[in-house]
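Lab meeting minutes (informal)
Scribe: AK
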Amino acid sequence: MEKSKGAIEAEISKELTHWEKSYLGRGSVSVKSDILRDMIIVVLRGILTPAEYSLCEDQRGLLAVKQNRNSLVESGVEELKNIIYTITGQEVISFYTDISTRTGERVIVFKLSTDLESQLN
């Protein structure tokens, strides 16, 4: 039986939460994944620590937190691509991420080799 779009999105969210906890040492408060055309867009909320919020009060600290957090995620990008491939059967051709030091949210965009959403509809 084919998995539904919602089931795949939920599985991606669950696996990324597991990856965060095992690779980064702590997970986000919530994760929401959406399949849109040839992209998977993931929003992770509540990822900054209280200490990181304190650092973000000035520009130098803010840039340091962004750079550090993005470097940590980028260092695990192959594992993230493998997670997406295992769940969807789709190759990730590019990966984008950024973090908001104001809201503590991270957005990850996985660009896939084909239009997964149309295959699921």
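Next up, CB showed the second protein from the same session:
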Amino acid sequence: MKWITRERPKIDRIACPWLIRRFIDPEAEIIFVPVADIPRLAAELPATPFDIPDTEFTHYEDRCTFDYFLEKYRLTDPALHRLAPIVRGADTDDHALASESAGLWAISAGLAYNTTNDYELLEKGMLLYDSLYSWAQHLYKEKHTQSPTEKLLLQIFNTYLHQKKSEKKKIPVWATELKEIIQDQMDTNLSLSLKAISEDLNVNPAYLSREFSKYFDNLTFGEYIRKLRIEKATQLLNAPQHSLSEIAYLTGFSDQSHFTRIFKKYTGQNPSDYRKNLAKGKADTKG
């Protein structure tokens, strides 16, 4: 079977071909082309497109294409499901999902930078994911520090650090500045990126991702931004001049369907029902 996707792969477009060849179709042919050529070549070859919008094999809400392959082909291997949040975190820049995500992103970005041929890059990526899979199967509980004495010293040191943090939990300057940036840009920049913001703050993105939830309602960056978008949407639903598709656009969702799913997840109601209940409540108040 032939599979086709965008050129210059890094995370999902390497992880998915690895998954296909190792667990779905060992003879699969992977094709990398410019995105504009995909519809034509997918029909001519024919080939199944993946990791591009408006296809079956793509991102869904906060899940990446790797997650969809696992679900579609009912792959239940525990090691694959240990890999899934690592791939998802690296592919979506949500490194809080797994501590290994930042490392996977760094290695993948470096491989892509050093390797200009996509098919050579895929072969190197196959070795990378073979190694990750072995770790997820056999080594995920092991630590680099094996000496009992070293472990004990590290435990004591980490306990001391935890106590010091508990004694004085001061909000860092970057957290205050980050909140101001989000508040300032929320209405105008609907594609806020933790990576871009980390550059503005001059803070390591992996550290920022890991520490974010401590100062933002115990939410990840993605969850916090979605929460703000839903809050903005509830305000716009009070204004009858905006259609649901317009509100979806104004709050940064890909389309009305995506907006409806996320809104219902957070509020328990569809946007249309929420708006009707608002109107009914106003009418009852006047009555």
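CB comment: The chain has two domains: 2-139, 223-286.
No objections, moving on.
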